[in-house]
Each structure stands twice: as C-alpha cells, then as structure tokens.
Design goal:
This protein is of the alpha+beta class. The chain is about 50% helix and about 20% strand. The structure holds adenosine-5'-diphosphate (ADP).
Length: about 425
C-alpha cells in the first residue's frame, strides 16, 4: 500500500472513531455522522483547490499544499517535475554543446528542409554564403545560384560531392556534399579542399606532361624500328630482337595513350556535348566486326535496340570495347562470352559475362586502380596496359553510373555497368532493327 493511502486510512479510522464516540455519547447519530461526512468532504475539496493552485504555480501556495494524501501526491509530482527539469537541462546542455561545436567547425554547415529552405547555419556558412539571420526560411538556391549547385540540389543523388571553384569571390576550391537526415531534412556541408585539389592537379599535370614528353621520342623510336625491321634480311639474327623491341614500343605507346586518356578524364575535359547515345547500334557494329577481335570464342549478343542513354559517345564506346576485350583476353579459347544491353526498374545495364579464368574475391575491390593486375604476366602477354578498368570507372563516374563486378575463379566473371533511369531515352525502332 502506498504511503499516501496508508496515511489517509489512518486519518479516516481515527476521525471516524472520534465521530462514533461523540455520536454514542450525545446519541445524535444522524447529525454527528452527517457533520463528519461534510467535514471530510470539505477537507478534500480544500486540498484539491490548494493542489490545483500549487500545480499552476500560484506564488502564495507553498509546497506541500497539505499533509496526508494530497501532501503525498504533491510530493510525488514535485519529485517527477524535478527529474524532468534535470533531464531537460541535460538535453539543453547537450544541444548547446553541439551547437557550439558546429559553430566552431571550419566547414560551412547549412540545414535545409524538404523545400530547401534554410533552417539553421553555422558561422562558416554565414561567412561563405554571406547569410543573415533573416535568411532563415529562404530557399538556398535563391541565395546561392551557381548552376552546378542548383542542378546538384535538384537531382537528388547525393552519393558524390560536387566541386566548385570560387564561391562568392573567394578564389578557392570547395567541395559541396548533401547528407539527408531525419526523413526530409538535408545537411549541406561545404569543405575548403583548395590545397588537396591543387596537389591532385599537380599530380595530374605531371602525369599528363610526362606522357606528352615521352610520346614524341617514342614515336621516333617506333618509326626507326619499323624501318630497321623492313631492312634486315629474314635470316638475320636481328629479326627477333627487333620484333621484341617493336612489341615493347607498341606497349609503351598504348600505356601512354591510356595515361593521356585518364588525365583528360580527370581534368574534366570530356569533349563534345552530351546527347542520346545509341548503345544498341554501337553494339551491333561491334558484333559485326567481332571476327577481328576473336575467332576462338563464341560471342553472343542480347541487345535492346531501342534503349539509348544520354552521355558522351566516344568515351562510352571505349567502355563497351574495353569490357569485351578484357573478357576475350581473360577467357581461354573455346570459352563463351555474352554481351547484354537491357533495361529494368533500376535503369539501363551493359553487361559482359564470360566463362574465363575469373578473379578471386580479394582482388575485385582493387581492379579499377591504375596498373592493378591480378596476373601481371598474363596482362602483359595479352597486350594489357593495366589502365583499362581505371578508364572505364572514370567514364562511368562522369555518367553517374556504377561498375559492378561479380566473379568466381575458374568459372568466369560478370562486369556490369549500371546507368540510372534518368539517363534513359527510348528511340522508335525501325523495321530493319526489329
Ligand atoms: P589490363 O590491361 O591488365 O587488362 P584492366 O584495367 O583492363 O587492365 O584490368 C585490370 C585487371 O583486372 C586485369 O589485369 C585482370 O587481372 C583483371 N580482369 C579484368 N577483366 C577481367 C576478366 N574479364 N576476367 C578476369 N580478370 C579480369
């Protein structure tokens, strides 16, 4: 039994005994017991009114409003209130700490609601975007109108960050990243990546310049080698060394070309305009010239001819051929290769499946690194540069697409490029393509 009820019962029993005693002595049972009930009720009504005043925070009623049952209730309520206040203070302290930490962050942070209206921003964001307190509630794209940023915000795919050079007359490089949180809210994080970007640029420039510098002397050497090969007698001891030198010089040229392609891709100079690319037609052309690529494999094509995507045609062409050429090079003769181009609910997919040597799981995550090869000797033997998949990955990134690799050693591999549904355009199919 609770303390309050016990006290109340003691009070009732004692006072009832006194009332019965008075009624017995005076022999006025009706009046005495009636007066007792009225008194009891009046006491409770008074306590309830005192309790109500106290809970409303009436300044003249001090705690506890009365003893007995109501005293106990007010004591419990007051204890609960104190614990809630403590909890609220703790929460307040934590949120103040969080706000102070966010304010001190060198990255600009802006919290946005569903319609991109600003809910909150930190000190760095205020400086970077020249924001005022009165901008809370305004849409971010009305305050910062960079076209790339507006497109990034609207597109809704926030896996990758956006790099913008120069924000509001600050001549530095910034990375913009949006993190969705708590259902519809978004946190915009803007980082100054100027130094990092410059270092990467220096590295890119170095690779591009070195490749350019090597290209000319190598072309001269190849030219001379060709002339020398033509001019030696067929039984000369120089035939074999010259052939080997020419082969190595071809390999070097292929590596330099791939390095230059990669640098061009990294420095964001994909030339030409994006437009609908008829992948089906490109694959049909590839199918027709398959004999030049291999006669030792059975290659089949499953193509959706009307399925097109918006993108850059030449780079996409090199993705198509790169994956098929890898499948040929890493599948022993007699094996089969299937090339698919299809659409499903997740988007458009280009897939190359082979029954080749396969790749152990440990290597799969690293295949798109430059010069990463599972079997260096085999790659070299088959004329590989070690850069093919790095190029494929870069081209796909430029199309916001992903490369998925599945493989089993000695069974075969599947290389699949996933393009988002937003890139798909369908063309009407002509009679000849049906
Ligand atoms: P490479 O010029 O060496 O082929 P890539 O970048 O195209 O360079 O491929 C990297 C490595 O991935 C290859 O060296 C090879 O080990 C592995 N690889 C690529 N495609 C396949 C495939 N279809 N089957 C097995 N291994 C593959």
């Amino acid at each position: 039994m609770s303390k309050g009820i016990a006290r109340e019962l003691t009070w009732i029993i004692t006072s009832l005994w006194i009332a019965i005693f008075i009624a017995w002595v005076s022999d006025q049972w009706f009046w005495v017991l009636g007066a007792y009930l009225l008194l009891y009720l009046g006491r409770h009504l008074y306590s309830v009114s005192q309790f109500e005043k106290w809970i409303k925070g009436h300044s003249r009623v001090s705690y506890p409003p009365s003893s007995g049952f109501w005293g106990e209730v007010s004591h419990l309520v007051s204890r609960k209130q104190r614990s809630l206040e403590k909890h609220a203070n703790l929460q307040l302290y934590k949120s103040e700490q969080f706000l102070a930490a966010s304010m001190a962050m060198p990255d600009a942070l802006v919290s946005l609601n569903e319609t991109h209206q600003i809910e909150w921003f930190n000190r760095s964001a205020r400086k970077l975007f020249v924001l005022k307190q009165s901008d809370i509630g305004r849409r971010i794209e009305n305050l910062y109108r960079h076209p790339d940023f507006v497109t990034y915000l609207k597109r809704g795919h926030y896996d990758q960050s956006l790099v913008i050079e120069g924000v509001n007359q600050r001549p530095r490089v910034f990375s913009f990243k949006i993190l969705p949180y708590h259902r519809v809210h978004k946190l915009l994080i803007v980082k100054d990546i100027h130094e990092l970007y410059n270092l990467a640029q220096i590295r890119r420039d170095f690779v591009a310049n070195a490749s350019h510098e090597l290209r000319t002397p190598l072309t001269v050497l190849s030219g001379y080698l060709e002339v020398m090969q033509d001019s030696v007698e067929p039984d000369s001891p120089w035939v074999k060394p010259l052939k080997s030198m020419a082969h190595q010089s071809d390999r070097m040229q292929a590596i330099i070309n791939d390095l230059l392609t990669l640098s061009a891709m990294e420095s964001e100079t994909l030339t030409g305009d994006e437009g609908p690319v008829a992948i089906g037609t490109l694959l049909t052309q590839m199918q027709e010239s398959m004999d030049q690529m291999t006669t030792e494999h059975s290659v089949s094509f499953e193509i959706d001819p009307a399925l097109q995507i918006v993108g850059y045609e030449d780079p996409l062409k090199s993705v198509l051929t790169n994956l098929v050429s890898n499948a040929i090079r890493y599948t022993p003769s007699g094996g089969s290769i299937t090339v698919r181009w299809y659409e499903d609910a997740k988007g458009a997919h280009y897939e190359v499946e082979d029954t080749g040597i396969g790749i152990a799981q440990a290597h799969i995550g690293r295949l798109t690194e430059r010069f990463y090869r599972v079997d260096t000797a085999r790659s070299r033997e088959t004329g590989g540069t070690g850069l093919g998949l790095a190029i494929v990955k870069h081209i796909l990134e430029r199309h916001q697409a992903k490369l998925v690799i599945k493989s089993q050693v000695q069974k075969g591999s599947i290389f699949r490029c996933d393009f988002s549904p937003s890139r798909i355009v369908r063309k009407p199919i002509s009679e000849s393509e049906k």
